[in-house]
Amino acid sequence: MSKTGYSVKTIEWQGDEVVMIDQRLLPLDEKYIHHQTWQEVANSIKTMVIRGAPAIGVAAAMGMALAAMQSPADTYAELKKDLDAAARGLFETRPTAYNLGWALEQQAQIYEKEGDPGQIRRRLKQRSQEILEEDIAMCVAMGEHGAPLFPQGARILTHCNAGALATAGYGTALGVIRSLFKRDKNIMVYVDETRPFLQGARLTAWELKQEGIPYCLITDNMAGYFFKEGEIDAVVVGSDRIAANGDVANKIGTYTVSVLAKVHNVPFYVAAPTSTVDMSLPDGNHIPIEERDPAEVTHFQGSRCATTGTPVCNPAFDVTPHENVTAIITEAGVHREPYRESLAAAKKGK
Ligand code: MRU
């Protein structure tokens, strides 16, 4: 699989197949999975072969294109029926990532209008590729807007993986870090390991190593120590969904980091494309939070670490209130309180 020039490719078309790097195996193994059906794509989203809200959006858009190719329909009505079924199946995979519904909506705009099935098939594939390219462009723009926010030689904490792997390429939070590193080689990144799925330890550390960006991996419960020691100058994270008032859903543990940042007077930045902003939700209380398999908590890399029958809670995301967010960086610029107006304007600009 080719590289984008920015980083490894997360997902791409190879002929009429959708190819994804299997993120469950990283960093130990670099394997690629080929998808020929939307059901295979849905399964890969659900099982975290591909993850990260923007990457999930691209996968869903490509899944819809596959659904159109799979469908034997000759008429518009038959094709629409098959596409509606695929959209429902893809939508159910991961409830928190807003980019998923956004991408399905983009594709719906193509096939909701009655038209020639062959033309719809071509347009769905073409639009999925455009969504991929737009996502990379948005990440690069976020990097340019975000980089000037950081002091010289900044020591930056990030949580989860909001890098090239979580997007079509370059990354949101990690994109900002990439852009900053181009300007300032003295930065340092503290990487939360991000239990239970270890996106920080497995994916963010891997990406930073490839880019030659200095980093230090810490366990999630060490963050408070480093804030207290005055070792962290700024936080930057990605997001799965941002409500209209600027409340931010992101990987579980992000809220804790935001509280630490607030107590220690450290700026807390969120980098996300406007396709992550859900203006239909007034605040973060309405964001659906995915509950994942208890085995992610009771087991570590396939080995049991809690006694059999242990009750488990495993919310995959939490919501950081907008009061804890210093600024939200989108492709449109840097947004500060009050977020509602500025995020609405950014969305309209799209
Ligand atoms: O469960 P995941 O790995 O899909 O969660 C990913 C995150 O929480 C990311 O921080 C978020 O999607 C932003 S990615 C650019």
Can you give a write-up of this model?
It is globular and about 65 Å long. The mean pLDDT is 96. The chain is built from 11 helices and 16 strands. The strands form 4 sheets. Strands 6-5-4-7-10-15-16 form a 7-stranded mixed β-sheet, sandwiched between helices. A 4-stranded mixed β-sheet has the order 11-8-9-14, covered by helices on one side. The chain folds into 2 domains: 11-140, Up-down Bundle (Four Helix Bundle (Hemerythrin (Met), subunit A)); 148-347, Rossmann fold (3-Layer(aba) Sandwich). Strand 5 (188-192), helix 7 (199-211) and strand 6 (215-218) form a beta-alpha-beta unit. Helix 1 (38-46) runs antiparallel to helix 2. The chain has 350 residues and is of the alpha/beta class. The chain has helices at 38-46, 53-70, 76-91, 98-111, 117-146, 173-183, 199-211, 223-228, 254-263, 295-298, 339-348; strands at 11-14, 17-21, 32-35, 155-158, 188-192, 215-218, 234-237, 241-243, 248-251, 268-271, 277-278, 299-300, 303-304, 317-320, 327-330, 333-335. The structure holds 5-S-methyl-1-O-phosphono-5-thio-D-ribulose. 5-S-methyl-1-O-phosphono-5-thio-D-ribulose is lined by residues 51-54, 160, 162, 166-167, 172, 199, 238-240, 250-251, 316. 5-S-methyl-1-O-phosphono-5-thio-D-ribulose binds next to helix 2 and strand 9.
